[in-house]
Amino acid sequence: MTVYIPLMALLGWTALIAVGLCLGNVLWKFLGIGVGAVWRGLGPWQTGTPDQRVPVVGADEPAHLGYWWRQMWVDTVSAAGYGIRVIWTAFADPWMGRYADNLFHGRNPNGLRATSPGSRLWLAVFVAPGTAVGALLGATLATVLLGTVLAVFALLLGMVWLGCAAPVPVVRGVERGWMLARGVRVKCPYPGCYLPVPLPMYRCPKCRAEHRALRPGRYGVLWHACACGHRLPTTRIAGRTKLTASCPHCTQYLPKSVGTTRVVHAPLIGGTSSGKTMLMAAMVEGLHSCARRGELTVEYASDDDRRTANDLNQDLKSTGWAHATTSTQPRALMLAVACGRRRRLLYLYDPMGETVSDASRVRAQQYLAHTHGVILVADVLADPKVRGRLGKEDTRRAQDARPSQQGPWDTYQRLTGELAALTGRRSKLSVATVVTKRDVLDQLVSLPVPGAQIDAWLEEIGLGGLVRALGHDFRSARYWAVSAHAATGTGPLESEQRRAAEPVLWLLAASGLRTDALTGPGGASGKERRIRLRGNGDRERKYSPA
User: Fold this and answer.
1) Do 34 and 112 belong together in one domain?
2) What is the pLDDT of residue 48?
3) Is 352:328 a contact under the CB 8 Å cutoff?
């Protein structure tokens, strides 16, 4: 008995020593191979090597997701799982599958059989269990230590993610606030669309891929990586406006100033043959006349706009008349107008006269929902009251001028109700009323000659109801009389061109562009006056007569 107790103690200490030696040896080996596996798992480290964890670029947005958004976590989780699996794979083989198994069978860890029965018994009974327990404890502790390191690493990654994600709403908010402060609201100028464009679609200059989400977000904060590898800026400051932009709804081209310049929508509304198209040509020529004098800067927003204006001028020079507008929904003629440091993108719409023939057609003109001011083209020769005052010779002159089939009062009545329904803010809009065909009106002896006060002249010839209605329904109204023939074609008069541009300059001034001085006294007194309208609450309405 006295011999048995010391022997058992010796054997127990032997097992404990085996556990300790194995634990000390295994722990650092397991931890080393685990850390190495995590490091390798973060790869691949060679450029161009395929990686199943990287998602395929989608067709809806041909850009790679920002590494910080998702791939960072995918790589971390996969690498961490791989590192832990390597530890327990090493525990299973070689530590349990070879080393411990050899010891349990009386062999050395390298597989050599012990020479004596006592040595085999010693290895199988005492060293083998200690080695197995030590390997188990080593793998467990290595897993715990590696997990602790990975938890700290995950915390650091979380801070990186927040550092990348937090600027996204800040940068978006700054750009959105800048656009709201400057009144920049992009609308599509093309027929059948006319929809708001919160964010244009941009094309990659290298592969021409269409990017619909080129802004700070999950694809990148300051840059997006296109599927072709080209870097695209996500903000206006970084140079996003230099890319080719198009409408995300109809995919048609948008001018480069879209998104940076406030848009002023100015539709020309009038009956068929009232002179809208010729008036628009005269307005454009008048703006260019002001630009030649250095009073402002005018540029066509695109090559298509330049071609449209040139073709119209060629028609006017060759025939003296403009072809009738045939499109039921017009494409806006876009001009970039700058006065000093302020810029505006002017949309001029020239719809066919039949669009105001009934309420349903007016309602289909969706661009009216975005208008900032209306240019009412008034052909007074089409009004029955005015025609009734004409003598025989004047009637012939009026017929030669191709009067519209719809008078200005009828045009106004069909427009105003639908305009209120489309915009919901008619009382906040300005209306520039332009009496056309002044060259003919000056020749009529049956009517007084249009003078400086066009509103008073309209009242005198029997259209006072129109003047009162415009002053009542709109925020402000102003009046001009223009001869588009004298402002276009061969030998145009610059004074008449500038007169034709005044209605547009007045609407631009209402948007904050400092063009008040250019409207001057031409075609009007140039001074706003107040009139008191009775019968509707005795409230005062302000308008600017010409």
Assistant:
1) yes
2) 64
3) yes
